[in-house]
Amino acid sequence: MPKSQVRKKKVYTPPTDVRPTATAATRKPSPLWLPVSAVSLIVFGIGWLVVYYLSEQEYPVMELGYWNLAVGFGAMVASLILLSRWR
């Protein structure tokens, strides 16, 4: 039985309008303080909420009342905003 011909594939080159630009490839990495501060904000927010619930709403700041929840969740939202800037 004769052997079939082997076809060579062409090398794919993407269209010019889809190719990444030189500026996108030369972005700087994020500074070290960014992930460190984001993780510390997450830990701070979770710690604040855990202390608030385990102390039966007496600590960390009794005068804030339910605004203690806003402090804890606000810290976690701030960390998410920081993490959206991480490259």
Short overview:
The protein is mainly α and 87 residues long.
Q: What does this entry look like structurally?
A:
- This protein has 87 residues and is mainly α.
- It has a domain of 54 residues.
- Helix content is 49%, strand content 0%.
- The chain has 3 helices and no strands.
- Helix 2 packs antiparallel against helix 3.
- The chain is elongated and about 85 Å long.
- The termini are far apart.
Give a topology summary.
Blueprint lengths: L21 H4 L7 H22 L12 H17 L4
Helix pairs in contact: 2-3
List the helices and strands in order: HHH
The share of residues in extended strands comes to: under 5%
On the 0 to 100 scale, the average pLDDT is 85
Total helices: the number is 3
The assembly state of the depicted protein chains is single chain
Radius of gyration: 26 Å
Coarse structural class? mainly alpha
* N- and C-termini, Cα separation: 57 Å
Identify the notable features of this structure and list them briefly:
mainly alpha, about 50% helix, single chain, 3 helices, elongated, about 90 residues
